[in-house]
Amino acid sequence: MLKKVCFILLSSYCLLVASVIPSGKTKVIQIYSFPTNEAVLFKIENPIDECTGYFITKSDIGFDANLSMVLSAYHSKNKLVIHGVPEILFSGSSAKYCKASAIHFL
After folding, report:
1. What count of other Cβ atoms lies within 10 Å of the Cβ of residue 47?
2. Following DSSP, what letter does each residue of 10-24 receive, concatenated?
3. Which segments of the chain are extended strands (E)?
4. Domain of 35, in residue numbers
5. The pTM is what?
6. Are 16 and 85 in contact (CB under 8 A)?
7. What residues pair up with 33 in beta bridges, in sequence order?
8. By the 8 A CB rule, do 14 and 23 touch?
């Protein structure tokens, strides 16, 4: 029984990891704040089919660092790559804002 539970948990984790998609080299062009659900959304210059933009929430681990990176990229117009999870979309929009799981500058 324990082996089955471990297998199911590991399989679920692998599916989540496998579904992370990079944006490609791009720039942040707009930033939105939603205080009611403590979310920050941002659009990119070259959206991919799976994600119109990305979002982070205050409860995310690394929220402060990621918000700082997004703001820095926006103001400096530096390119970055955002890794998003298309299966986790922002519920407050009809557009496809994917959950950002990693952000890095180029």
Report:
1. 18
2. HHHHHHHHHT-EE--
3. 21-22, 28-34, 39-48, 51-57, 80-89, 97-105
4. 21-105
5. 0.80
6. yes
7. 40
8. no
Q: What is the pLDDT of residues 54-97, one digit of tens each?
A: 999 999 999 999 999 999 999 999 999 999 999 999 998 899 99
Beta bridge partners of 26: 80
Closest by CA position to 81, among listed 21, 14, 39, 40: 21
Q: What are the distances in angstroms from CA 87 to CA 16, 33, 106?
A: 9, 21, 26
φ, ψ (nearest 5 deg) of residue 25:
-70, 125
Domain tally for the chain? 1
Domain harbouring 90, CATH code: 2.40.50.110
CB 71 within 8 A of CB 32: no
